Amino acid sequence: MFESLSDRLGGVFEKLRGRGALGEADVRTAMREVRVALLEADVALPVAKDFIARVTERAIGAEVTKSVTPGQQVVKIVSDELTTMLGGEQADLELAVTPPAVIMMVGLQGSGKTTTTAKIARRLKEKERKKVMMASLDVNRPAAQEQLRVLGEQVDVATLPIIEGQQPVDIAKRALQAAKLQGFDVLMLDTAGRLHVDQPLMSEMQAIGEIAAPAETLLVVDALTGQDAVNVASSFTEQVPLTGVVLTRMDGDARGGAALSMRAVTGRPIKFIGTGEKIDALEAFDPERVSGRILGMGDVVSLVEKAAEVVEAEEAEKIAKKFAKGQFDMNDLKQQLLQMQKMGGMGALMGMMPGMGKMKAQAEAAGADDSMLSRMIAIVNSMTPKERDKPQLLNAKRKIRIANGSGTTVQDVNKLLKMHKEMSTAMKKIKKMGGIKGMMKMLG
Ligand code: GDP
Predict the structure, then answer these.
(1) Which helix (H) or strand (E) holds 4?
(2) Taking 50 as the threshold, does the pLDDT of residue 444 lie above it?
(3) Count of beta carbons in the 10 Å neighbourhood of residue 308
(4) What average pLDDT does this structure show over 380-385?
(5) Selecting from 3.30.70.790, 3.50.50.60, 3.40.50.720, 1.20.120.140, what CATH number does the domain 3-89 have?
(6) What pLDDT, on a 0 to 100 scale, did the predictor assign at position 338?
(7) Per-residue model confidence as pLDDT tens digits over 282-334
(8) Structure pTM?
(9) Any idea where the domains of the chain sit in the sequence?
């Protein structure tokens, strides 16, 4: 999987890693090579272009953290962007509905749909202790229903008894009823494949979807078909509400173009990959792990992460010392704001804290969104060094200037000054109580 891309990128970064300094020209040369490597891996052109643009922008603007080389920093940026390109977070199956949760499997003939249905059923049974039933709705291909029955026996998963001559929509109804009555957690519907994407197929999918209200609709596509796999996925996405993609035959795919472009082109996450003919050859698709596998530079990535943590800790300590002395100026406030922004903004910070959903909505209603952080930072930037040191120097005229200079209002400027004042007062109180340590003592 991804061997050729991995080799090519390895070569590019080997050249970058040892360099003491990296100019813009070096970054651009390296990115040209990365771009060729991506295109050779059969990544869709717009996806490759977008990727290169994002990495270049970040790499040229990047501050290099102490104790890593610029080349190492670039590896980290590429690794981050590769993870994003592959979909970011791992996307699990969402089956938290009133049972039976229906998983509808769709795809072209020969994509590996029936095999994958059995693989997922087995995985749900073994890993999550789910009671699973499978039903084949494929009345076009002779012996398709029989194939699923045999696979069911092999993995010890129940299949809906076959009634000759019954039509797909009726089979789906019968399967739902049986799964409900017999207390199954999950019902997997293996729909009929076709040679090409065609209208009768789409209509059938839609009709079944209406009856079964699937929690997941997974498209199975063959990774070996490269960009065709992505095109098939795009066509399906337009007609059927897909929740995810399974890429089969990743074991034979050295290029990886389908996996790399799928998310960006279709907007749908890859949930699993098939890695062999055996019934247990199925893996959850974890973008971070895959990106690590492609770059093969996990050591460099974690080094850069650790170095960044150290620098942040040093910054925080410096500010804490100033806090303790009661000297906290606008520059320090700006540092704090930048830090918040880096952590994903107010929305992300609040989103991370349990129970903050409601507060987040209130804050947003009051205009406290992420643009507020940027506005506050812009205000500090518009102040002179003297004013940052002693904000009490600001008179009405200067406040208007600063508001104009930062694209904000005098009210915004006043709000920020008030916030700084409140923080300083709080700090002085802490100092009176004998600093942080004294306060801790008082609290027992
Ligand atoms: P369907 O027509 O889409 O239902 O396809 P099948 O499930 O019958 O699979 C077609 C062939 O592909 C079978 O021989 C499978 O064993 C094979 N196959 C399915 N998934 C994979 C995979 O991930 N890797 C490999 N190497 N073969 C696979």
Answers:
(1) helix 3-17
(2) no
(3) 18
(4) 89
(5) 1.20.120.140
(6) 75
(7) 999 989 888 888 887 656 666 666 667 766 667 666 766 776 666 778 887 78
(8) 0.69
(9) 3-89, 101-285, 326-442
From the options 1.10.260.30, 3.30.450.40, 2.30.40.10, 3.40.630.30, give the CATH code of 326-442: 1.10.260.30
**Which atom in ligand 1 lies closest to the alpha carbon of residue 220?**
3
Please indicate whether residue 292, judged by its CB atom, sits closer than 6 Å to ligand 1: no
Q: Of all protein residues, whose CA lies closest to atom 11 belonging to ligand 1?
A: 112
Q: Which of 108, 115, 139, 271 has most ligand 1 atoms within 8 Å of CB, for mutation?
A: 115
> Which whole number is the average pLDDT over 129-156?
93
Q: Which of 151, 277, 279, 285 to mutate to test the pocket of ligand 1 (most atoms within 8 A of CB)?
A: 277
Q: What are 132's strand-pairing partners?
A: 186
375 annotated ligand-binding residue:
no
Note the pLDDT tens digit of each residue in 81-110. 999 999 998 899 999 888 899 999 999 989
- C-alpha–C-alpha distance, residues 242 and 202, integer Å: 12
| Residue 275 is labelled as binding a ligand | no
Which H or E run contains 293?
A: helix 287-295
Tell me, in angstroms, the distance from the centre of ligand 1 to residue 142's CA. Answer: 17
Tell me what percent of the residues of the chain surpass a pLDDT of 90.
39
The pick from 248, 250, 273 for probing ligand 1's pocket by mutation, whose C-beta has the most ligand atoms within 8 angstroms, reads 248
Q: Which CATH superfamily is domain 101-285 in?
A: P-loop containing nucleotide triphosphate hydrolases (3.40.50.300)
- Confirm whether residue 346 is marked as ligand binding: no
Long-range contacts of 176-179 (CB under 8 A, 24+ apart): 176/100, 176/102, 176/211, 176/212, 178/133, 179/99, 179/100, 179/133
